[in-house]
Queue: 4 jobs
Job 1
Amino acid sequence: MKFTKKIIPWLFLFGILLYIGCDKVNNPQYNIDDTSCNECGRCIQICPVDAIEFGPNSKAVIDQTKCNQCGRCITICPKDAIY
């Protein structure tokens, strides 16, 4: 009985963490909010696979076929425009 009381909360926590971790599998794309992007180009400079470039509206655009989801662009964006 004591074992069950101890293991159930851990299984619940594990389930929550598994669900949160699966978000990357469900949505494996990074996107850029056009309204927040200030066209600084930092994300373009830091991208190791050249997946980001300026689009027709002078805002950064991510080529999803090249992006490897390393997350460098997210950490460097001063406006938190990449999600």
Job 2
Amino acid sequence: MKRIEAIIRPEQLEDVKENLQKLNVNGISITQIMGTGCQRGYKEYVRGMEVDFHFLKKIKLELIVADDQLEPVIANIVETAQTGNYGDGKIFVSEVVEAIRIRTGERGGDALK
């Protein structure tokens, strides 16, 4: 099992969710976050003073998928969230040692279904 953490633009969220549903991905956690990377934030004028906003609003998706779902899910997220501009986001993949469904006690891949 793999854990996918994808940080994307907020305006890409609905399209990414729709396309992941087509892949029968079961279970997605979504968090609103703030961050900075190559995009470096933006400047705005507040009451005549220039204010530098270093952190931008982003969305963090977290999914746990079976090993055979990993590449299709990553390809789907990249294809859907990519605009070709700075700030499109990043995807991180890590190994999941165990998954347990609390309600039934199911373990491993059965806990993901």
Job 3
Amino acid sequence: MRQSGILMHITSLPGPEGCGTLGPEAYAFADALKRSGVSLWQVLPCGPTGYGESPYQSSSVFAGNFLLVSVRKLAEDGLLKLTPEDAYRDENPEKADFDRVRAWKSALLRRAYRQSAGSLRAEIARFADEHPWARDYALFAALHERFGGVQWTKWPDRDLRMRKKEALRRAAVAEAGEIDFHLFVQYLFFSQWDEWKAYCHSLGIRLFGDMPIYVAEDSADTWTRPDVFQLDRDRVPRRVSGVPPDYFSEDGQLWGNPLYRWNRLRFLRRYDWWIDRMRGMQRMYDVIRIDHFIGFAHYWSVPYGAPNARGGKWVTGPGRSLFARLKRALPGLSIVAEDLGEVNDQVRRLIDYTGYPGMRVLCYGFGGGADNPHHPANHVQNAVLYTGTHDNDTLRGYLTGAGEQELKSAREALGFTSVEDGIDAFVTACFRSPCDTCVIPMQDLLGLGTEARMNLPGTVGGNWLWRMKEGAFTGDIQRRVLELNQRYGRMNPQ
């Protein structure tokens, strides 16, 4: 089925809460997608953000980011009393200040807890029973706050680090109030999420989520399930993730995530943790993009504490056995394989086996040889085509900064002369492509420059902050997208 989507993270929506939320702005954007004939809304990972506010370094693969909870919606639902003095004072509506938003929203959520948690006690208990991860996450979050936010492997209480039963029992008693608060917040997140998802479905819009292959070292997941990861007796990683040196980086990229104990997961656990994780993703999303999919075929393993990724080595991943198990356990799972990077025959065979669509990125299409899979001449039907991803510069930024030979190749293939014409030519080429699905980052539909870039890999600070200006997704832009969907057979069936 031919379809189109827009990549727009929820925090990037406009609105009066300092960052986008699951409140009225999310519903309004869904309405705009419907008017544009779009079928997919792609978002970045929606878990609690970690180091540098990265959604790819979350403290839980199951929990939701409380910053996405709409306090206005809580007020509408009678769960929070707001006064004019509670309004967020936004100094720059086009950039999120997550530290300020976190402090402001935390205070209001604690007030909502005091005002409404008692009346929701039965519903929250039912939520915790239906989500086995929830109580462990709530205890982790409470202890993380008790110990000043330091990484759990550095908590002063070794028995808690090692999850000794008596220590956990004492902590559960001592932190009962905080545990209840974090359960309350997760209940609110998923209540608002489910309501918003149902609304999107009523418009014929499916949610397209993004899932990192790895988890953060400082996470509830590594604390509660150390058997899943390559950790030593003190719960410190033995080896960590990254990618090898390449044209872009002579040191490679040292990501630092703990690696999985794949043999144990396969032969002793029958991939139970992965089934639970994917079941959680399936509950939230209709389609799931797995970041760094090549890591299932082979992954770069770096000694913990290494200064860079040069000393790593390739190790064979779980391959077919994982996806055979997932297909049996979760037959309706819809996955997109992010197959960018070191794609060799081993990776190609795994993707062929799964049948999952891979990715093409048009901005990557005009360098290299004639066999470049991102060039329009080499696009295939079973793929998702992007102008660029969250890790790329915007389309305007790319066209402004690309090399002369690369631009010449793009002009010849797509038929444009100026940057302005080039933006429209790239977007049109994505809709025209034989790829079943095309997804356009919102910044590219708006024609924004490098100032709207979402992330610059390898840097910390200044990323993930972009927010769309109120009213920027105009009727003219919506009509242009609708025209492209109609012309190239990608219309939302509703």
Job 4
Amino acid sequence: MKLILGAANAGKHDAARSLFGAHEFLDGSRESFEAAFESQAIESYHLLIRRLLDENVNAIAFTERLILENPGVIVITNEIGCGIVPLEKKEWIWREACGRCTCLLASKSTTVVRVVCGIPQAIKGELP
């Protein structure tokens, strides 16, 4: 498993392609939850988590299942917790779930890459 994270539009998608050869991406903002268990790469995992919460699905349990059933997946997610804590409870719960799921993914990933201004930086493991 590999995790790529960074700000919106920081170049995470391109990093997944160039570093790990990803060419098929599941869009977490709209595609089926079940497809995640067979995908080569999932982008917008933070939006997949929002959808899970909207459907009353436990995001942590889903992420644990993903780790078990698709251990080779590349997960791409935005860093969303760096800023002002939202006033709306739903937004706070979403950020909390994203943080917990991202920590879980990072702990099980062989490589964790943070992309800043299109530049990938290994924060766990090594870049190929």
